[in-house]
Specification:
4 strands, 98 residues, alpha+beta, homodimer
């Protein structure tokens, strides 16, 4: 999930890291092999605006493993999103190559 | 670095993983604590187009540690980019939060 750095939008990194992510980890259980959060500092030039204010990367054995773990909790997890942001996240599934 | 999934653009994942990334690792040396490559599979909906065709994440102790390691090799590394893509990468610096 990537949260774009748009004018006038809010993102509460403290709530995200200390409330949302621990709750997500607890709901997904052992199927989630990793969950990293990055906070945007800058673009390529020092002091420039980062394209994304925050990113979260979740690691699963497969897309099916994600869907089986996330599906039953999707409504609960997505219902918590307005508590930390009003940014519509960019979501994509990746294969880890290296 | 994020490579956007734009119409008519090329990205050679085999060259990227087997030639470019090993060369970058060798140039950056021990300062680079981690280097992951993701290949976009889909967007949030199965079968939809992923926003990014590929992403690479490099981990350093600090922005300064990156600049000290990357700076002397920047021209050489960037000169290899046309060998695998004609996409202009989106670059940003992040702080790892969790």
């Amino acid at each position: 999930m990537f949260y774009e750095n748009a004018e006038g939008k809010r993102f509460d990194m403290e709530y995200f890291c200390n409330k949302h992510i621990p709750m997500v980890k607890q709901k997904l259980g052992a199927a989630c092999k990793g969950l990293d959060v990055d906070q945007g500092l800058s673009g390529a030039q020092p002091g420039s605006k980062p394209p994304f204010v925050a990113m979260a990367h979740m690691l699963f054995d497969s897309v099916d493993a994600f869907q089986n773990a996330f599906g039953p909790h999707a409504d609960y997890i997505m219902g918590d999103v307005p508590n930390y942001t009003d940014i519509q996240p960019v979501i994509q599934f990746n294969e880890v190559k290296t």
